Amino acid sequence: MQNSEILDEARLDAYAYELPEALIAQSPASPRDASRLLVVHRKTGTWEHRTFRDLPLFLDQQDLIVANNTQVIRARLLGHRVRFENSQKIIGGRVEFVMLEEKGPQTWEGLMHASAKYLPGLMFEVPTRAGALIRGTLLRGAAESPSGTVVVEFDQDPIQAGAGELPLPHYIHRDGVESQSLHNADEQSYQTIYSKMRGSAAAPTAGLHFTESVLSEIKKKGIQWQEVTLHVGLGTFRPVKSQDIRQHVMHEERYEIAPEVAQSVTEWKNSNHRVLAVGTTSVRTLESAWSKSTPSSGALRAGQGRTSIFIHPGGAGFQVVDRLLTNFHLPKSTLLMLVCAFAGRELTLAAYREAVREGYRFFSYGDAMLIL
């Protein structure tokens, strides 16, 4: 029986669930804290239906909240290939480049979708909001990277030049004139209100529900709040393709923890108080940077780091995180697997089925789940 359970937990299909397309949120709740909150109690295997503004009711002075303060950049660049023949510029097929990590001055590693092979020397141009053009040249093709990323050098800084747009997930549609108002609203709604550190290719979506009102209530109750930084990249949203999830390799993502934050979390955890992580990226940061000194104590390492940690059922347990606030994630995703590792696969998927029955809104702009 034990071998069967391990086999089930390792199968990709074990993390599938049915989701009506109508439940994929296309815009956030307004106000943010009006989103729904499914509160899951692990000890009893039960849940209750709340709204996000009820969050402080489930917390007290024994809780320390850790959130990811990364800021989403205009990481998606849309343009066309260009080449030159006899000093004439010839416009080619469409190009989409998503910037993931700055590797040097005006040089970015990222993902590329183009109508040609991603070979070094390929050039493309991207219009800026001011009507100018910036040019990118491939320095490294996709075949030279195990993760399929490329490296592009630009003739000017693409962010400062205003060439990019927010990299909304593919399931959020902003086509047509009727979506222009939503597209404009994304500039604010696809950032947490506490975002500070520029560099992310996607929002840490569990934090999108917070409002100044909710934060004020948290402060009034004496609940502690700390922030770490993990710049969301390929590691977070890269799909799992292997049928045995244990064969999946996460792409590295950058994180940073300030010394005072590391000290605060270390002292809090070693005092046997609870740590609530806001989102899977905060979980991965905390668990990656924790060094265990004894079975009952450890320390959170300060400074910059890189993590490719893959948390899934059957893997290593949780050393830091006691409670989790998260959104509802895509089927068969590493994010769902992390939640299943935290709450148990059967309870998690049962809660997801309940959320579907009750019409919760899913994914980045959707509702939230609090796991206690």
The count of helical stretches stands at 8
Structural class: alpha+beta
The fourth-level CATH homologous superfamily of the largest domain is QueA-like
Number of domains: 2
Proportion of residues in helical segments: 10-25%
In the predicted model, the low-confidence regions spanning at least 5 consecutive residues are 1-6
CATH class of the largest domain: Alpha Beta
Beginning-to-end CA distance, first to last residue: 28 Å
CATH architectural arrangement of the largest domain: 3-Layer(aba) Sandwich
Overall pLDDT confidence: 93
Following the backbone from N to C, one meets helices and strands in this order, namely HEEEEEEEEEEHEHEHEHEHEEEEHHE
Radius of gyration: 21 Å
Question: Biggest β-sheet: count, sense, barrel?
Answer: 9 strands, mixed
Topology:
Blueprint: H1 2-10, E1 36-41, E2 46-51, E3 63-68, E4 70-72, E5 76-85, E6 88-104, E7 107-114, E8 123-127, E9 133-140, E10 150-154, H2 180-189, E11 197-200, H3 212-220, E12 224-230, H4 234-237, E13 253-257, H5 259-270, E14 274-278, H6 280-289, E15 290-294, E16 297-300, E17 303-307, E18 323-327, H7 334-343, H8 345-357, E19 368-371
Parallel strand pairs: 1-19, 3-12, 3-14, 4-11, 14-18
Antiparallel strand pairs: 1-2, 5-6, 5-8, 6-7, 7-10, 8-9, 9-10, 12-13, 13-17, 15-16, 18-19
Helix pairs in contact: 7-8
